[in-house]
Sequence to fold (642 residues):
Amino acid sequence: MIAHLSKRLGYYALLLALAVVISYVLSSLALSPRGYFEGRQPPPPPEAIDTQLTALGINDRTPLWERFGNWLGHALHGDLGRTLDSSDVGTEFGRRIGVSLRLLLAGTLLGTVGGVLLGTWGAVRQYRFSDRAVTLFAFLLLSTPTFLLAVLLKVGAIRTNQAVGHELITFTGEKTPGLTGSLPTLFGDRAVHLLLPTLAIALGTAAAYSRYQRGTMLDVLGSDFLRTARAKGLRRRTAVLRHGLRTALVPMSTFFAYGFLTLFTGAAFTEKVFGWHGMGAWFVDAVGKGDINSVVAVNVFAAVMVLLAGFLADVLHAALDPRVRTS
Amino acid sequence: MNRVARRRFVRNPHAVLGASLLLLLFLLAFAGPFLTHWSHTDIDYTALRQPPSVEHWFGTNSIGQDLYAQVLRGLQKSLLIGLLVALFATVLASFAGACAGYFGGWADRLTTLLIDLLLVFPAFLIIAIVSPRLRSASWLVLVGLLAAFGWMLTARVVRSMTRSLKERDFVRAARLMGVHPLRIVVRHILPNVASFLIVDATIAVGGAVMSETGLSYFGFGVQPPDVSLGTLIADGTGAAVTYPWMFFFAAGLLVVFVLAVNFLGDGLRDALDPTSDRARGRRTKRAPGRRERAARRPSHPVEQGHPAPEGTAGA
Fold:
């Protein structure tokens, strides 16, 4: 088992190295930070732009391999370079991850638990009206892109506010700027701001999980061990929840691993629609500006998270399913 | 499709609904434009931001373009993008997966490495990075990119299916008779994974359209003067409250289209795959097909519309 996991770790290291090289080269070739500076009003003199670009290590007149070597040397010592506005990429990182986490945590938790429960319920009541209703609703949500769902929620909130006559639901940013008051007021303000994004995330997540969970649960419901549990006198509810649900959650561990690690990579659409400055929004803005250092940092970080999730899924699977360990 | 499968398909209300909706949407997209004299580039200076009327069925936008013509034009483009991406991605996936599974050795190792590497890169991020260079390129480049990042999961499943097919007697017999390996792949392996590929390609159409609209929403996808459902939704978002017709026609068609595709895919799976939920029934023992499911890791969140748990994400 240990040997197997360490072999996988080596493979992941290879993938990561390739990912770093490719993201750097691709970003450097495709993005044009020079254009960003040239587009400023008033346009700075070309020499000043050159100096600035060289200072940031992204001057397109320096050979690519030299830039990459330079960047890599610093990155290996934990220095990810500077953004176009000359702030430290590492510091920006910490701030952005915090924002994304605050945005996504509640929605993801809610969506995961809700999806698993709905999926289990649907499987137990297969083909009854409630199962069909949940399925239809899940399909509808799965066919709505996140950005569309977010915009629809926003429109709904604006309509509600207009109907009520004052700003009942606020949805722009993390909090009301400049708001002062006691701790409960500030906390309440943040909670209201979280309402719509959390709903957008939870609905999408729950729809996806409910489909997967329904499938794995149906596999389990027909199994011999569940019949044995019933035969030895357990009530149906106890048998399904204690023995069935637990087993059905094992294959779901892969999805949980990906779901929770991608919390950190943020949610570009939700962040942009609701005006949160998290990881996803950072990436979209950085591509727009041609901020190579930030783009590479986010890209490599996303790759690390995907690999880590894969590794975590392997470990979880082995921990939960004895058959994997022995084979 | 054999008779049993056809009967199962026809009896599935979701599948029939999905197929009919798709047919209607195709009719609307390709025959609909002939019902009006406005083209998607015409500008009616006498009607700016007008609500739906007899003259402009879906209303007009802020520069006086007819939204009916625009939305249908966008629908055409989105349908084409979805179909082409699914086609290219499935062809690529079936060949890469079947060859890797059948030949094994270095071909297998290289393909697996490539699959894993591409999965590590979220497609959304890569296409976004490359997009500034695509401003002037045709939308076909976007199709190529979406297909290049959309084949890996399918290929993984095809690979694992091929590895078990390879041990079956009919493949072994063909090999011993001296049939050329490529011919074995094309004539014996691929037809046996065809039902999976059909279902997968159907669902991929919906996924591709969602990716396209997502990218276009940020301006990374289809570039003006081309219009797609994504660019129309992006343009209409700001006006969703004040001038709802600029937003809701495009948004509604998008959801209906993806929903129809998902229904059709689900119905096809029930009809073609004897191990799927509906065909399996509750009382039977666990059927095979677990491996296929296990091989399908959820992809990166940002890469697709929203699928998977990471769904959150839709990024």
